[in-house]
Amino acid sequence: MRRPRTQDDLDATYSPGQTPEQSRAVARQLEAWAAEGTRPGDEVNAAELLVFAGSQLSRVGDVQEALRVLRRAVATGEPVDPDVRCFLHHALLEVGDVDAARELAGQLRRERPSDVDVYLLLGEDYEVHGDLREAHRWLTLGVRRALDDVIDGDDASEDQVLRQAAHLLVSRGRVRRALGMPADEWDELAPSPATPDDELLE
Fold this sequence. Notes:
The protein is mostly helical. The protein has two domains: 1-80, no CATH class; 83-189, Serine Threonine Protein Phosphatase 5, Tetratricopeptide repeat. Helices cover 70% and strands 0% of the residues. It has eleven helices and no strands. The chain has helices at 7-11, 20-35, 46-59, 63-75, 84-94, 98-111, 116-128, 132-152, 155-178, 185-189, 196-201. The longest helix is centred in the C-terminal third of the chain and has 24 residues, at 155-178. The N and C termini lie far apart (47 Å). InterPro entries: TPR-like_helical_dom_sf. Residues 1-24 are annotated as: Disordered.
């Protein structure tokens, strides 16, 4: 019986300088690990292994293969933060299957996810792919959810939710400017973008 699969095992499969062939080899290795299933003691489940495999394939331009792997990740039914379907949605847009991406996004929206990162990921996906109206829709839903969480949440989680809300507000403001929309009351809440001098002081 194999030992439990750790986060260190996953981290060790990737290095920034690896070649496309090395990335494909990593993806094959991760798929093989995922095929063994998730066992007691594993720090990373099969779905997480497949998501990482999909990212390796996507980064070298094998978008159809990435889509195949990410469909397998969703089919496991195992959890991936913030939601495994976010990664599948990204892959669908990458291969140009906009209708399937919209259908998946609609499913997610109807479920009203509690993790605001879902709204951020889908919103920024649509922004990158030029669908600014849909990006605005998702980022606005995310801001509303995040601000509701601030009102309803406890002190321990408030700082994290505020950070998530700030990222959503910045992205939403950027999309609104690209759409030529006037600033609204939520735009006034968005933190100013960091300047190079600010980054040097951190």
